[in-house]
Structures are given as C-alpha cells and as structure tokens.
Design goal:
The structure holds 2 protein chains of 2 kinds. Chain A is an alpha+beta fold. Helix content of chain A is 44%, strand content 16%. Chain A has a single domain, classed as 3-Layer(aba) Sandwich (Glutaredoxin). In chain A, strand 3 and strand 4 form a beta hairpin. Chain B has 6 helices and 6 strands; from the N terminus they run αββααββαββαα. The chains are: A alpha+beta, B alpha+beta.
Chain lengths: 123, 182
C-alpha cells in the first residue's frame, strides 16, 4: 500500500533535491486546459509532458503549467513553449507521442519541431 | 468528450478559475445512477450569470464567444435520463460564497459513457493548482476511495503537491484504493 510513511520518505528525499535547485527554470511549457483543450485531448498531453520532463530529469530548468483558452480552439490541444531569450513556439493538434518527440528534439535538442507548429498548419 | 472524468475535469476547472481555495469533488454510484458534484468556495455567480449559464453563446471569457462546458454536461446528463443542477452564491451577496454543480446520470442508459481515468483527472487538477485544497470521495456500495490534499500538505510542509514524485504517489495511492474495492 502506498502509505503515508512512504510519502514521508519521499518528502525526505525531495528536501535534499529541492535544496540544490538553483533556478526556477528558464523554460516554460504551457498546456491549454479549457473545455476546448480537454475535449480535444489535452489531459494525456499534459501528463506526457509532466512525466517526460521528470523522467529526463529536466525539472530544474523546465516547468509545465496549465492555462485556459487562448482563442484558437480549432487547433487544440495547444501547447506553448517559452524559452528565455527566444521566440515563443506554439504547437497545435498535440498528442502524447508528439509531446515525447518535442521533449527530445526541442526541449533537450534545442530545435523546435516545425511540422507541429501553428505556422505549419496554417499554410 | 468520451469519458465522464473529462467532464469532471472541465467542470472543476470552472471552480479553479473562480479563485477557490477549497474544492470538493464527490462521486457516488448505485445500481442505476452515477452522481457527481463539485463544490467550491470561489467567487460564485450573480443571478444574471446563473440564468445565462445554459446558453452556449454566453461566456465571461474574452478569448472566444461560446461557453460549452455546462451545455455539454447538461446534454450528456439529460441524454441518459439524468439532470444537472447548479446553485451559486456570488461574493457580493455573502461571505459564504461559492458554487455547487451536481450532475446525475442514468448508468444503464445506452448513451452513458464510462467514467474513464478519474485518477488522471485528479492528478491534472493538483498539478495545475497545487495550492488548492481538493478533497475527493468516490463512494461505492461496498466502500469508498478518498483523497484529502490538506492532509497531504500537513505532511509535506513546503513541498509542492505538483512535484512529479508526489503526484505519482497520489496516483498510485488512489489506484490501490480502487483495487481494494473492485
């Protein structure tokens, strides 16, 4: 059973980890979670980013947050990536698999996956 | 939307955006019905807002002109022979303000959809708003599954409930509770 004792043990490990954190992150991944996003499948996309960032140990530099509707409902699930000193990248029609690919190529590799961006869809 | 748990996520997001600090989600199941309710202590709605709520062309948003959350929920509930009821006290009316949304579904109706992954819904809510005290109770005839974020926060102190390790623990704890009941 996932007991409260186990939670206390996790807490003890976390305190050490959090103590060495130097910044709150230079990169922000924002997932749209309004009715339009949820209906289009944003929940597994958010989950894929949260788990992927954690699995790759990128948590110190990357935060995953949620937002409401940004007004382009027809392109949901929409994910925006904000990186320090770079232009915002907007990904549209996202899936959990695409999330993994974006973590690999964009977040880790530094190159936006152009084919999933809103610019590629609007053409 | 093809899972009831996505409707619950959507409706609870309204409570989050209403600035709530406490949100209670309950689910009950018997042989014929599934009922869920979401209660918050957020800003509430005025009578005018409440009247327009079921109109899909009413929204307080500035980003788009339609609001489909409540109409979607109402349509699904009524298709299964159930209903949706909403009560709300706006913050200008009383300091005991907030909104309660309750939806009843006919469980055996052909148009009823599966509950789906309610644990993912809860993890998503906590990830987005770790500072909110969510409580969740899912009552079955033979027991219940429950979660109380304020209790977890007492143990965790400064550590955010949104930390992936904590979210994982919450998810696994809930799934184990479900396994015990089923």
């Amino acid at each position: 059973m996932k007991s409260l004792e186990e939670l206390m043990a996790i807490k003890a490990q976390m305190q050490d980890k959090i103590a060495v954190r130097t910044s709150t992150g230079n990169t922000r991944i924002v997932v749209g979670m309004a009715t339009c996003g949820i209906a289009a499948g944003a929940r597994p996309v958010l989950n894929a980013f949260v788990e992927g960032i954690s699995a790759e140990n990128l948590g110190d530099n990357v935060t995953v947050t949620q937002t409401g509707c940004i007004g382009i409902c027809q392109y949901e699930p929409v994910v925006e990536v904000y990186e320090k000193d770079k232009e915002k990248v907007t990904y549209v029609k996202m899936t959990a698999d695409r999330a993994k690919e974006i973590i690999e190529k964009h977040i880790k590799g530094g190159k936006p996956v152009t084919e999933y961006t809103i610019g590629a869809y609007k053409k | 939307m093809n899972e009831l748990s996505l409707y619950i996520l959507d409706i609870t997001m309204n409570s989050v955006r209403a600035g709530s600090s406490e949100i209670r989600i309950t689910l009950t199941e018997d042989d014929e019905h599934v009922t869920f309710s979401v209660s918050d202590n957020g800003c509430g709605m005025t009578k005018e807002q409440l009247e327009k709520l079921e109109n899909p062309f009413f929204t307080t948003r500035k980003t788009r002109k339609v609001g489909l959350g409540i109409p979607f929920l109402k349509m699904l509930a009524e298709m299964t022979g159930g209903n949706v009821s909403i009560s709300s006290v706006h913050e200008s009316e009383s300091c005991d303000h907030g909104t309660t949304t309750k939806a009843v579904f006919g469980k055996n109706h052909i148009d009823f959809i599966p509950l789906g992954d309610i644990v993912e819904t809860l993890k998503t809510l906590i990830q987005g708003s770790p500072e909110i005290n969510f409580t969740f109770t899912h009552t079955f005839p033979n027991g219940e599954v429950s979660l109380d974020c304020s209790q977890l926060r007492e143990i965790l102190g400064d550590i955010s409930l949104a930390e992936p390790e904590i979210l994982n623990w919450i998810g696994e704890n809930l799934r184990e509770q479900y396994d015990e009941i089923r």
